[in-house]
Protein: Serine acetyltransferase
Amino acid sequence: MLGFEIPINVFDAGLRINHRGLLIVNKHVKIGKYCDIHQGVNIGMQGNSKTDCPTIGDNVWIGPGAKLFGKIVIGNNNQIGANAVVNKSFVEDGITIAGVPAKKISNNPNPYVRNHLLNE
Structure:
């Protein structure tokens, strides 16, 4: 009804979905605490193996229309820009990535993104 395809046990605690609309997440993806995700996001596998899916850290902001796929790792406290296509790992914490294909664009994440884990 809302356009979400999110299997159970993919996200850890504190998931925030900002808008209704298309949102597809593969059942083998693992996403940490306090993920903040927007509409139009697709997170899935590349290939046929269960292990060909992303692992995303804690406190990650995922902008509208972003696509993440393949056996990649995204570090903690990162931001993924709108419409980014992420097909390689970014294990460094506290960075912003964006573009097609995605690349690191900043070492200073947006201060307005939720910082739950930073304040614990």
Observations:
- The chain has a mean pLDDT of 88.
- The radius of gyration is 13 Å.
- Residues 8 and 27 are 8 Å apart (CA to CA).
- Residues 1-109 form a domain with the UDP N-Acetylglucosamine Acyltransferase; domain 1 fold (CATH 2.160.10.10).
